[in-house]
Amino acid sequence: MIILCGHGKYGEAIKNSLEMIAGKQENMYTVDFTEDMSVSDIIEQYNERISASTEHVSIYCDIPGGSPANAALLTKKKNEKVRVFTGLNLSMMLSLAMGESISQSLVDAKESIKEL
């Protein structure tokens, strides 16, 4: 299972864009972090998604040190099946959707950042 989260509707926007390119993404969910939410609220939403899964869960967040990432790290401390990644971008998710490994998706994400 993959959970996408960022400030505002960032995770939802990434998923929608990904589905325009690669089709419907099963087993990928989003958590929106809005101004009226706390870290505890995010953790609660993560746990709702995680409890519905019997497999490992990767949480991808927009920036390190942000509330979504901090909530993900607190969630990871209590659940061994959770992995947390930051720097969420469309290139990273496209790599995963095309069957690349997590490590390759991280390389692809970094390589997509360039001045043209």
Automatic annotation (TrEMBL):
The keyword DNA damage does not apply. Its main location: cytoplasm. The keyword Transmembrane does not apply. Residues 1-116 form the PTS EIIA type-4 domain. PROSITE patterns: PTS_EIIA_TYPE_4. One of its GO terms (cellular component) is membrane. GO terms for molecular function: kinase activity. GO terms for biological process: phosphoenolpyruvate-dependent sugar phosphotransferase system. It comes from the Bacteria. Coiled coil: none annotated. It is found in: Cytoplasm. This is PTS sugar transporter subunit IIA. It comes from Enterococcus raffinosus. The lineage of its organism: Bacteria, Bacillati, Bacillota, Bacilli, Lactobacillales.
